């Protein structure tokens, strides 16, 4: 998928998500009309590519884009639509802050993503970055979606960069869980290739994570948020993945920083497992039992790709988003992010 097609796709994700919030809100017709006027042709192209989320993705695909409802295939974007997206502007008479107060965080994220995407549309460059840390060193400070080309990858791909969680560094997100909209109980091919929207909840994909983390020694950071608003984190001083013939074995260093405790070392040297590819050390199928893809041992002390539960709902059968040393097995975390950067 071309870079322009990629940013148009991300723009549509932000806009369509916002439009769904606006459908029952006639009090603010200006924004609704603006969305329809500027992006209806792009929505049409998007609809043409609809496919069910459980559709199997070709394991040889270079850069499949998957979100909660659709597997996107590469498509050619007509030049007039590219020009339309690049030239779209935010009308002066729309008060985004006023509307955001009424419609919540989704519209705030739409505003940020829209401005960032339209700015990037006119400032593409041939310069390659290997990860978000290189982008940070080049002066980038806006959290968002950027294109990178890891040193061992033949193809560039988009990632979500975090420049604010740990000031002074550019972290590359490899997983984000913030809502229950995206189903993480997926098959091997989807875990290998990635799924979700980079501006929202997503799994980057085992192949891309390997290219990203293995190009030079990397640090892993995991940010965890419980239902009481507590935030804790864990860092590991080395993180890499084995090759596909080892089923992306987890190569993990020591727990080196944080206050969440160590619930990942138990999974060190374990291959990745999904319900349709059982590689765990248990006589049964951990991925099927606990509804996730993960580096299961026999079975787990962490299960960050588990099922998402609302805070008032206890996870049945320990199937939730779990970190043993923060919350235990009887509750499910509300939000989780996994991210990597080059080791100091």
From TrEMBL:
Gene3D superfamilies: Gamma Fibrinogen, chain A, domain 1 (3.90.215.10). Residues 1-18 form the signal peptide. Residues 123-344 form the Fibrinogen C-terminal domain. One of its GO terms (cellular component) is extracellular space. Pfam families: Fibrinogen_C. Keywords: Disulfide bond, Signal. InterPro entries: Fibrinogen-like_C, Fibrinogen_a/b/g_C_1, Fibrinogen_a/b/g_C_dom, Fibrinogen_C-term_domain, Fibrinogen_CS. This is Putative angiopoietin-related protein 7. It comes from Stichopus japonicus.
